[in-house]
């Protein structure tokens, strides 16, 4: 690297923005409802997703990651909350989500961004691990995130995150410590997120780190390339370490995202491995480490300005790399998206084909129509 | 250092200091008398009261009663009734604990301590840093009058020198830092021949193998051993705990019934275990003894064991009749023995740790983490350690094969211990587990907390002082979502069962794939799992496999069945719509005999009790816990089912020897702890009890008093008063001949359970032939040594071929059990089916001295004489027959049916009582229901619904009939999953009409139409039995078969006493009738009373049955008190002149016959 380039990079780091949370967005994320009090500003945030499933295979079930247990309608997400900032150095978010048992806390955090390029965030928030998990639930091109991301990313947990960026967003980084993660018993049910009020249920903390590089400039918060700009590229990676007293889990994530002229491509690979903290001293028949992996790749294109998009996704899933069973799957999803009112309103129609590579096959293809309104 | 940094350092120092404060508490021990409720142990089933004694140290807390009557299962005071861990957390302070124990009662030679006032004292309060000690001292007493035989002259004649005049001193010793109470008892002779002073006590050796109980107490038959001393405890672990013994596992029923089926009584050959334990929540209990110095491995002998009560023997000694041991043995007049009561952390392993450490057994450590299929820690999982029957063999395919190999090897499933991951209140639920075990070869596997998934087997070889780390994996269970709606699509209360389909395509039966020995409990009919829905979508978990799913809502609704395949980690969704098929308008269905957590032998929490009641379609439920008044109202409110269920407050007054009585509605008194105002029956006789119950009825308009299971041995009032089948003579059993409480009797009772639980053996009086054939076939099965012998066991009842066939490779003992089950069904069916000729012979039979032997199989080894066959077997009078006898004598008691449900295997509502009461569900008036029952507007039923009327007059009403015939209008309905195929119509006790119906369960309207019957020659009655007998009409699609029958103390006692040559001629076991069977659809109507003389009244010729109170005077005694041995008692009523006092209550409650009020 020539000295002048090094100097430029150092200069960029030195000039890093104070408020890294304000990523520029290519879609219209202008808040519809804002209260501005001078020293503080509140924005109303909300997300309503209604899914219609006109057809699906007999074996399709919600707990398996499918959109419904039976053809019909479902409120997929109903969220409401506020976010905002105060005094120029504090930002926050507080939101709730409807569940079958009432309302659950979703995001509840406050950030303090007193140093240039560094912020401290405390509360319940998505851990900085998976790019597609960090992306908003309504910001994808397809109705749902990839199955593997839903299963393997820890999503919201309670803890402390230190994050920042350099070079006006060219490099972003985050480190965090959180309550120990709690996995569900089945792959597709993912991690438990509703433990914010319970405190740490385990004896140790989990640690997460993530870094992103966007050398050609910010690629925005959502997946579709509404800006139809020039070629942009982002690469990232995350790692977590959950050193439980009884089981130690490590995971990593690698991702790549590209956008150009209304086209987007994103790929993400997740891998994790859980093994007993004390190595078993007997019987090699029992597995030591249990490892899982998931790969997804998605490409999409906006056909008509900011209104009509087409997207396809491929996934490869393996819920236990030591076993050849019907947890080894592939999934194809293809769909159309139509955007209204500068993306605050969205309709999506998509078809998912799932195939079990080993073991007994399942009738779990599905056709999904989703209508989304987002504040 | 900057100020900020200094503050941070100070803060860090403070945190460090605080961390240092959390070190463990110093060991201590103390004893004190509770002066306030917040000093007690606490817990849903805790029994101790203010004034009782508390022993606690840094590990555990226990409570010992003062001398007042025990509110727990026992009768005397001074027993250990509550036990829990020491729980320093804030939520457990101030008397809030997790006690799950019922009672520990020391026993010496079958006698219980009976301390008098002042007999419980604190010997050491622990303030000196030593152990705290509470001492209970006093005389011993019999807890059953029946045991007075031990002190009888006849016993003394046969067994001179037997020790039954004893006092006992028991020290409950709690040392600092220990998780057990050391119980040291010393028994002293108090008989006139006892030396004075008594001198020092001889330490009794610990038993090391099966010792015949009566040999230990009475000496042996060949007189080489003198009568001796046997010490142990009665231990009621409490129904919330599952009893465990190493090897046997958690299935205490099977070993004892296996023994009984093989003709071994467990008093003569007690089960012997290394230790006993029980677990079921966040606290567990254990019981063990230490080896005698220089002795072998000590054992705990178990002569009697049921799910709620166990008798343990830990030490025994007989002196030799030779003189060689006189100085070492014979000279002693006091004996002492010790045993240990452990309070564990919730699992068996924590008890085992204490046992092994106390005994000094070398151990290794097994520890690790249980994981789910995704590698995640599996909170609250269970780890099971089983004996490896053949360490050199290839690994067994699954846990069933492993258990089978152990059965073949040692006759037991071989469960060594059970370890809870995250045991007890572990705040960090990360699947960790730990246990110590003796060195050996084991097979280990894990199961998730819900018992819905079991992991693969792993071999472990453990050596002393070494540690093996394991990380077993449990697959994700399958999930099933079930929606059950009515015809209109509304979610309804329901029960959903899951029955596995086996590899050969057959539907599982019996225990099927359920594993009682792992603590999964026993259901029956092959059912693996069930779930209850209270008008809600059910989500439940299951092990992977093929299942038949059955949805039901009691006998008025159709059922739904579906076959599903459940896969690990996946979910199935099923919908059922059940039609309400049976028209019961104008009636409500009630269960007036239900137990829940207030009963020491139930433990089911009230909300679960209510849920299960609803799932069986019961509309009126009455709480009838043993001697405790309970109220379901809060549970009903919590569930929000007020619009579907009416509840009543009642009680089952559970005397030890006078039978059980139910009454409702009563008042629930929140302030009276723990019985909430239940009547105290101590030393009351029949008239006293019924009078007391009348006083306790809370509704000013009246309620109902029901005699529960009247013919059920010790717990049946009619059995205990010795009333014969004719309702005339009274002959007390030898064991009860001196029970002063049986002198007077009364028939002042409103109702009686003609159907109780699934006790079909108590309903009808069998014929001699029926009993002989059953016992003859049963005996052939017992002695069969091969399949051919079994196949030829019973041509009499199964002329079409062998009773059963067994799968290839099945153990012969299990195969025999199939034959027994089939025999029991055929025999029970035969007994329930009454022919007019049989009824005529039974009804007209006059008892004679030869009756006793006429239904003994040994009496007629060949052909049964024709004149004997149809006569009644007098050993088994049936309640329905009793009732008809009494009716003909003018005593009209309502017949009812009730489930007596305690746990999962006896469903509420099976049987039930339909009551004529026109109210919407949830809006019935409990007082009106009670009074309708009293007025005979009731139909006891296992399922069929019957409407019967004569000239529009229904049960309890008088119909005037004249001429030659009258017409009965009959309507019989059953839901489409069971059916009635036989209707018997009784007029005046004779079977006047039999209607056989040739259809299966699909027919709902089984019969509707008129039946013409003869008019009797005096005021009489008509009653109808509707019965399903065909196999396809049975109720086993929904209701569990009875797998073993009842463990009846009289049966065990008769076997035990019968094994003593001197007693064999007295305690000849009565010939048995089948007491394990499928559930027959059966209903019996109450009587429509027939007025035949046109006066509009029902006035049978009488006289009333002999157990009704008859007023007398000294002058007319000879003509009024006409029963054998009967006299006119000083209180002006006829009765038996039994002298003495009632002594089965604490000192101070003694009552003699002359003081009865």
Topology record:
The complex is a heterodimer of chains A (375) and B (1157).
Chain A: H1 3-14, E1 34-36, E2 40-56, E3 72-86, E4 90-99, E5 102-115, E6 118-126, H2 131-134, H3 147-152, E7 156-166, E8 171-179, E9 205-213, E10 232-243, E11 247-260, E12 263-276, E13 290-304, E14 308-318, E15 328-340, E16 345-356, E17 366-374
Antiparallel strand pairs in A: 1-2, 2-3, 2-17, 3-4, 4-5, 5-6, 6-7, 7-8, 8-9, 9-10, 10-11, 11-12, 12-13, 13-14, 14-15, 15-16, 16-17
Chain B: H1 3-21, E1 29-33, E2 53-57, E3 60-64, E4 80-85, E5 103-108, E6 112-114, E7 120-125, E8 132-141, H2 153-158, E9 166-174, E10 180-189, E11 202-203, H3 213-218, E12 229-236, E13 242-244, H4 253-261, E14 271-273, E15 276-279, E16 284-288, E17 300-305, E18 310-317, H5 326-330, E19 334-344, H6 348-359, E20 364-369, E21 371-372, E22 382-387, H7 399-410, E23 415-420, E24 432-437, E25 440-447, E26 458-462, E27 467-470, E28 473-474, E29 478-486, E30 494-500, E31 529-533, E32 538-542, E33 545-552, E34 560-566, E35 571-578, E36 587-594, H8 606-615, E37 620-623, H9 633-639, E38 646-649, E39 651-654, E40 660-664, H10 686-696, E41 704-708, H11 717-720, E42 751-756, H12 768-783, H13 787-791, H14 812-832, H15 836-844, H16 851-854, H17 866-869, H18 879-888, E43 894-898, E44 912-916, H19 926-934, E45 938-941, E46 945-949, E47 958-960, E48 965-973, E49 982-987, E50 990-996, E51 1005-1014, E52 1020-1027, H20 1049-1058, H21 1061-1064, E53 1082-1084, E54 1088-1091, H22 1117-1120, E55 1127-1128, E56 1134-1135, E57 1141-1142, E58 1151-1152
Parallel strand pairs in B: 11-19, 20-27, 21-28, 29-35, 36-37, 37-38, 41-42, 42-43, 47-54
Antiparallel strand pairs in B: 1-2, 2-3, 3-4, 5-12, 6-8, 7-8, 8-9, 9-10, 10-19, 12-18, 13-15, 14-17, 15-16, 16-19, 17-18, 20-24, 22-23, 22-25, 25-26, 29-32, 30-31, 30-33, 33-34, 36-44, 39-40, 40-41, 44-45, 46-48, 48-51, 49-50, 49-52, 52-53, 52-54, 55-56, 57-58
Helix pairs in contact in B: 8-9, 12-14
């Amino acid at each position: 690297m020539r000295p002048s380039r090094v100097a430029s990079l150092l200069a960029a780091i030195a000039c890093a923005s104070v408020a890294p949370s304000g990523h520029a967005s290519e879609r219209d994320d202008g808040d519809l409802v804002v209260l501005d009090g001078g020293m503080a500003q509140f924005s109303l945030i909300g997300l309503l997703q209604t899914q219609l499933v006109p057809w699906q295979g007999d074996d399709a079930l919600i707990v398996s990651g499918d959109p419904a247990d039976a053809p019909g309608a479902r409120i997929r997400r109903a969220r409401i909350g506020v976010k905002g900032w105060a005094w120029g150095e504090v930002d926050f978010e507080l939101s709730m989500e409807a569940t079958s048992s009432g309302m659950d806390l979703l995001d509840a955090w406050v950030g303090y961004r007193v140093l240039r390029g560094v912020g401290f965030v405390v509360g319940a928030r998505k851990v900085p691990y998976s790019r597609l998990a960090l992306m908003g639930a309504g910001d994808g091109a397809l109705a749902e995130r990839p199955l593997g991301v839903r299963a393997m990313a820890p999503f919201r947990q309670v803890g402390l995150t230190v994050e920042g960026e350099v070079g006006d967003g060219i490099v972003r980084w985050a480190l965090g410590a959180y309550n120990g993660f709690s996995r569900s018993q089945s792959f597709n049910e993912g991690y438990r997120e509703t433990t914010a009020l319970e405190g740490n249920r385990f004896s140790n903390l989990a640690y997460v780190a993530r870094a992103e590089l966007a050398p050609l400039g910010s690629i925005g918060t959502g997946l579709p390339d509404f800006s139809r700009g020039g070629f942009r590229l982002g690469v990232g990676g995350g790692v977590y370490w959950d050193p439980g007293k009884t089981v130690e889990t490590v995971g990593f994530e690698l991702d790549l995202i590209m956008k150009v002229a209304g086209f987007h491509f994103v790929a993400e690979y997740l891998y994790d491995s859980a093994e007993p903290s004390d190595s078993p001293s007997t019987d090699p028949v029992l597995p030591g480490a249990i490892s899982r992996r998931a790969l997804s790749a998605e490409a999409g294109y906006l056909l008509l300005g900011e209104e009509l998009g087409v997207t396809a996704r491929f996934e490869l899933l393996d819920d236990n790399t030591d076993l050849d069973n019907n947890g080894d799957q592939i999934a194809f999803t293809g769909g159309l998206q139509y955007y209204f009112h500068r993306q605050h309103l969205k309709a999506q129609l998509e078809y998912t084909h799932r195939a079990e590579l080993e073991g007994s096959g399942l009738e779990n293809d599905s056709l999904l129509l989703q209508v989304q309104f987002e504040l | 250092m900057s100020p900020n940094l200094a503050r941070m350092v100070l803060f860090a120092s403070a945190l460090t200091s605080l961390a240092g404060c959390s070190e463990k508490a110093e060991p201590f021990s103390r004893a004190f008398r509770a002066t306030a409720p917040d000093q007690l142990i606490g817990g849903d089933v805790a029994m101790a009261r203010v004034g009782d004694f508390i022993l606690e140290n840094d590990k555990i807390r226990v409570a010992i009663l003062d001398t007042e009557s025990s509110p727990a299962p026992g009768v005397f005071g001074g027993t250990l009734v509550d036990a829990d861990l020491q729980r320093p957390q804030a939520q457990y302070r101030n008397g809030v604990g997790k006690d799950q124990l019922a009672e520990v009662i020391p026993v010496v030679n079958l006698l219980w301590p009976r301390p008098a006032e002042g007999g419980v004292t604190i010997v050491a309060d622990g303030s000196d840093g030593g152990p705290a000690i509470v001492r209970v001292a006093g005389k011993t007493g019999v807890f059953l009058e029946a045991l007075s035989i031990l002190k009888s002259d006849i016993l003394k004649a046969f067994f001179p020198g037997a020790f039954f005049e004893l006092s006992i001193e028991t020290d409950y010793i709690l040392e600092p830092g220990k998780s057990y109470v050391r119980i040291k008892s010393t028994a002293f002779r108090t008989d006139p021949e006892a030396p004075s002073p008594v001198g020092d006590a001889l330490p009794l050796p610990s038993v090391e193998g099966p010792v015949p109980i009566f040999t230990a107490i009475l000496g042996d038959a060949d007189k080489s051993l003198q009568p001796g001393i046997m010490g142990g405890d009665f231990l009621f672990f409490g129904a919330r705990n599952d009893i465990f013994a190493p090897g046997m596992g958690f299935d205490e029923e099977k070993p004892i019934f296996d023994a009984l089926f093989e003709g071994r009584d467990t008093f003569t050959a007690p089960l012997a275990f290394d230790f006993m334990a029980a677990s079921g929540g966040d606290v567990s209990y254990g019981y063990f003894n230490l080896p005698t110095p220089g002795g072998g491995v000590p054992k705990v002998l178990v002569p009697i064991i049921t799910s709620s009560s166990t008798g343990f023997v830990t030490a025994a000694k007989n002196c030799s009749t030779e003189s060689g041991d006189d100085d070492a043995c014979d000279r002693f007049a006091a004996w002492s023995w010790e045993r240990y009561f452990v309070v564990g952390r919730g699992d068996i392993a924590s008890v085992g740790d204490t046992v092994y450490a106390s005994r000094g057994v070398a151990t290794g450590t097994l520890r690790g983490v249980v994981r789910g299929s995704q590698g995640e820690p599996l909170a609250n999982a269970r780890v099971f350690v089983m004996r490896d029957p053949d360490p050199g063999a290839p690994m067994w395919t699954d846990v069933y094969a492993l258990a089978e190999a152990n059965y073949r090897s040692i006759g037991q499933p071989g469960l060594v211990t059970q370890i809870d991951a995250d045991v007890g209140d572990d705040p960090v639920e990360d699947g960790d587990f730990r246990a110590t075990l003796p060195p050996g070869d084991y097979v280990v596997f894990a199961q998730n907390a819900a018992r819905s998934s079991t992991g693969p087997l792993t071999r472990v070889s453990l050596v002393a002082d070494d540690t093996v780390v394991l990380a077993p994996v449990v697959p994700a269970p399958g999930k099933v979502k079930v929606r059950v709606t009515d015809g209109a699509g509304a979610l309804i209360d329901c029960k959903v069962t899951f029955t596995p389909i086996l590899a050969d395509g057959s539907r599982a039966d019996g225990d099927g794939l359920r594993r009682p020995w792992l603590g999964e409990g026993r259901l029956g009919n092959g059912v693996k799992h069930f779930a209850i829905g209270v008008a809600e979508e059910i989500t439940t978990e299951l092990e992977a496999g093929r299942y038949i799913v059955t949805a039901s809502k009691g006998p008025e609704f159709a059922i739904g069945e579906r076959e599903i395949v459940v896969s690990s980690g996946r979910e199935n969704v099923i919908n059922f719509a059940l039609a309400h098929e049976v028209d019961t308008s104008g009636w409500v269905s009630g269960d007036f005999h239900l137990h829940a957590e207030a009963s020491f032998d139930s433990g089911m929490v009230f909300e679960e009790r209510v849920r299960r009641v609803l799932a069986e379609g019961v509309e009126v439920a009455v709480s009838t816990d043993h001697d405790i008044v309970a109220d379901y109202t809060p549970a009903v409110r919590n569930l929000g089912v007020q619009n579907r269920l009416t509840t009543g407050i009642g009680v089952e007054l559970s005397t030890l020897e006078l039978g059980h009585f139910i009454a409702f509605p009563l008042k629930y008194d929140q302030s009276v702890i723990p019985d909430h105002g239940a009547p105290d029956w101590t030393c009351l006789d029949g008239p006293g009890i019924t009078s007391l119950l009348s006083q306790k009825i809370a509704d000013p308009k009246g309620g109902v008093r029901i005699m529960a299971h009247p013919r059920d041995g010790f717990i049946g009032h009619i059995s205990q008063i010795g009333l014969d089948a004719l309702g005339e003579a009274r002959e007390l059993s030898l064991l009860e001949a001196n029970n002063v409480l049986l002198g007077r009797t009364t028939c002042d009772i409103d109702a009686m359970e003609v159907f109780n639980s699934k006790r079909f053996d108590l309903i009808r009086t069998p014929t001699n032939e029926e009993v002989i054939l059953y016992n003859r076939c049963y005996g052939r099965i017992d002695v069969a040594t091969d399949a051919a012998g079994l196949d030829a066991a019973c041509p009499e009842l199964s002329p079409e071929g062998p009773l059963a066939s067994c799968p290839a490779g099945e153990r012969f003992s299990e195969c025999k059990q199939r034959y027994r089950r089939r025999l029991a069904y055929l025999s029970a069916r035969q007994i329930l089916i009454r022919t007019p000729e049989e009824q005529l012979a039974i009804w007209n039979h006059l008892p004679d001295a030869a009756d006793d032997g006429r239904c003994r199989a040994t009496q007629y080894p060949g052909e049964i004489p024709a004149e004997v066959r149809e006569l009644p077997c007098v050993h088994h009078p049936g309640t329905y027959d009793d009732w008809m006898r009494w009716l003909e004598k003018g005593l009209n008691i309502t017949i009812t049916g009730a489930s007596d449900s305690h746990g999962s295997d006896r469903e509420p509502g099976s049987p039930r009582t339909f009551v004529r009461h026109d109210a919407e569900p949830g809006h019935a008036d409990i007082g009106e229901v009670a009074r309708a029952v009293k007025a005979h507007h009731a139909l006891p039923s296992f399922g069929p619904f019957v409407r019967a009327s004569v000239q529009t007059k229904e049960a309890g009403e008088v119909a005037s009939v004249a001429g030659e015939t009258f017409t009965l209008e009959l309507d019989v309905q059953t839901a489409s999953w069971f059916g009635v195929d036989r209707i018997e119509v009784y007029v005046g006790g004779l079977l006047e009409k039999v209607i056989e119906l040739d259809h299966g369960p699909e027919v709902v309207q089984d019969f509707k139409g008129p039946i013409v019957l003869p008019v009797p020659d005096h005021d009489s009655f008509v009653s109808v039995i509707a019965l399903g007998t065909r196999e396809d009409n049975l109720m086993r699609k929904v209701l569990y078969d009875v797998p073993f029958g009842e463990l009846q103390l009289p049966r065990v006692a008769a076997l035990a006493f019968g094994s003593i040559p001197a007693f064999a001629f007295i305690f000849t076991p009565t010939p048995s009738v089948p007491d394990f069977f499928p559930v027959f659809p059966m209903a019996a109507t109450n009587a429509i009373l027939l007025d035949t003389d046109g006066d509009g009244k029902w006035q049978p010729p009488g006289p009333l049955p002999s157990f009704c109170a008859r007023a007398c005077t000294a002058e007319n005694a000879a003509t009024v008190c006409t029963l054998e041995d009967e006299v006119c008692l000083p209180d002006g009523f006829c009765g038996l002149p039994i002298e003495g006092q009632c002594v089965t209550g604490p000192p101070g409650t003694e009552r003699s016959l002359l003081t009865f009020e």
